[in-house]
Amino acid sequence: MAPELNAWTEMAARAYGAYAGINDAIKKARAADGSVAHHASEIRQQMIMMALIRSFAVMDRDARVSFQSVYRFLHTPNALNELAESYAKSEPASSVDSALATCAAAKTKFLVAYRAINFKSLGRMQSFRNSGIAHITMPDIEKARVTYTEIEKLVLSCCELAGQLTLMVSGRNDWPKEHLDDAFDVAYAFWLEAITAHSEGRIAL
Fold first, then answer.
1. Rounded to an integer, what distance in angstroms lies between the CA atom of residue 89 and that of residue 68?
2. 179 torsion bin: left (phi>0), alpha (psi -120 to 50), beta (else)
3. Are 71 and 114 in contact (CB under 8 A)?
4. Other Cβ atoms within 10 Å of 102 Cβ, number
5. Longest dimension (CA), the chain
6. Confidence bin at 140 (pLDDT 50/70/90)
7. Are residues 154 and 55 in contact, defined by beta-carbon separation less than 8 angstroms?
8. Domain limits of the chain?
9. Contact 163, 175 (CB under 8 A)
């Protein structure tokens, strides 16, 4: 379950990073309006929708593979021992006793991050499942009164959950937030240059 959740969260993180990078580039080059800026805005909208879709998917309470399933598992009596055994078997191998401390700390951080999620705003996304989440549009998001700030907080929460879960089961440091930051940097640099270059006549589209 952990590899899937980390991979899906990474997709959400990259999409949100791209959205945020494009958004900041458009703001920075506000005076440089034109077809490239409009094209960037369209891609920006697609990225925020993809981030929402992926984030909601990993938080779906009815899905077998989701952070809600992990949350329920962590409340079972033998959860910590099972995690420690999995951690101890990962490379480089370690004793179960030493793994227990690391897993316990990661479990606590996971639970803190999970409980900090605004489930009221997440609940407003539930209606997307009824019409097929893969086909939602921006009007659907606006109708559900989902804000960009709420989407950002949800994505960041999922990044923390995925990172702590991966650490618990494998001892690996694989944090989707790093992919978000990388996607932001790439998108910001590319689109700021593209919008500016088009405005200055250095490229023609």
1. 25
2. alpha
3. yes
4. 17
5. 66
6. low
7. yes
8. 2-199
9. yes
Question: Which residue in this structure is represented by tokens 């369209």?
Answer: 42
Provide the pLDDT confidence category of residue 142 given band limits of 50, 70 and 90. low
Percent of the chain with pLDDT over 90: 57
Residue 156 Cα to chain centre, angstroms: 6
Q: Can you give the chain as a three-state secondary structure string?
A: CHHHHHHHHHHHHHHHHHHHHHHHHHHHCCCCCCHHHHHHHHHHHHHHHHHHHHHHHHCCCCCCCCHHHHHHHHCCCCHHHHHHHHHHHCCCCCCHHHHHHHHHHHHHHHHHHHHCCCHHHHHCCCHHHHHCHHHCCHHHHHHCCCCHHHHHHHHHHHHHHHHHHHHHHHCCCCCHHHHHHHHHHHHHHHHHHHHHHHHCCCCCC
Looking at per-residue pLDDT, the higher value among 178 and 45 belongs to 178
| Cβ pair 155, 13 in contact under 8 A | yes
pLDDT at 49 exceeding the cut of 90: no
Res. 133: pLDDT tops 60: no
